[in-house]
Amino acid sequence: MSRFKSLFIGFLILFTGSITTACGNQKKPTQPVEKVALVKSGQTARPRIWYHFFLPQSRVTAKDPVNALFVLKNGKATTYMLPAGKHQATLSRLSKMSTAKQIKWAKTQDRSAFQSGVKAQQAKVKDSIRGIKTDLKRLQQAKSDPSQIKALQQYLKINEAIHDNPSKYAKPVSYPLTANQQVHGEQFGLKLYPVKTVQYGDANVIMASELSLTNDTFSQRIQPRKIGSHYYGGYGSDVNTDHYLILARVPKQTRIVYDQQKTTGVSKPATAE
After folding, report:
1. Helix or strand holding residue 182 (H, E)
2. Count of CB atoms within 10 A of residue 5's CB?
3. What is the pairing mode between strands 34-36 and 48-55?
4. What is the pLDDT of residue 20?
5. 24-40 pLDDT tens trace
6. Signal sequence span per UniProt (predicted)?
7. How many CB atoms lie within 10 A of CB 192?
8. How far apart are CA 214 and CA 102, in angstroms?
9. What does each C-alpha distance from 125 to 122, 154, 194, 208 come to in angstroms?
10. Judging by DSSP bridges, how do beta strands 179-182 and 266-267 pair with one another?
11. H/E segment holding residue 158
């Protein structure tokens, strides 16, 4: 009897172990991978934020400043420039805000970025004015050619006009969200608006100058990486030692892809194969 009891107990242990092993070998269900492409992500009524970085290194950290916010919605994009220097906005700071709060905050920061940009340009022009006045004084004391003095006086007036009459601030407006497929990457029709001294009509003016990204091919796809408390993925472009990156907050289970031509606003250049 004890022999049969021992056999029964042994069988029960073996059976229980088999069930445990079978359950342990079962694979856990994996989350589906979401494919994200920049232009396609901006086709819905729900706003999607992408961050623009201009950095000396290729990897973004939570402490790095965000150069601009691209808000994509309904096939259009709106650019909000952010201040540089001591008032810069880091990715860590933005990561603590909701999408709605970031957009609301960026609207006020765009004006601040313009104003600080104007001051920076005025400081450069002021240095030029100081140098022109020094040269003019030297020519007058040396009793140089009157035509040279007159030309320099005119140049001084032009620079003073540039310094004293910067353009007024204009609120950001949306523009069509586009991109061009490339053999090795994608060119996005996004725009930046850095403040520069540029020729406007017959005069030079301090103003927000439109800078299109269509000349930059983003040949690097940056797959999701945890930065701070969130995951970010996007695209990168290297020009000499400068690194340009466009990132968005994404779920961990995301694969960054390039846009397809079937997406509205995406075109294939004739030279591409």
Report:
1. strand 179-182
2. 9
3. unpaired
4. 46
5. 455 555 677 899 999 99
6. 1-22
7. 17
8. 26
9. 5, 15, 16, 16
10. parallel
11. helix 146-164
Residue type, 114: F
Give the neighbor-by-neighbor strand order of the sheet with 242-249.
175-176, 76-81, 68-73, 48-55, 242-249, 230-239, 220-227
The answer to whether residues 115 and 213 touch, using CB atoms and an 8 Å cutoff, is: no
The continuous run of DSSP H or E covering 147 comes out as: helix 146-164
Long-range contacts of 120-128 (CB under 8 A, 24+ apart): 120/195, 121/166, 121/195, 121/196, 121/197, 121/206, 122/163, 122/166, 122/206, 124/197, 125/159, 125/162, 125/163, 125/197, 125/206, 126/163, 128/159
CA distance linking residue 120 with residue 114, whole number of Å: 10
What is the C-alpha separation between 216 and 228, in angstroms, rounded?
28
C-alpha span between 5 and 9 (Å, rounded): 6
Q: What is the dihedral of CA 30, 32, 34, 35, to 10 degrees?
A: 100
The DSSP secondary-structure symbol of 252 reads S
The predicted-structure confidence for 122-169, as pLDDT tens digits, reads as follows 999 999 999 999 999 999 999 889 999 999 999 999 999 999 999 999
Q: How many CA atoms lie within 13 A of 249 on its CB side?
A: 19
Predicted pLDDT of residue 28: 57
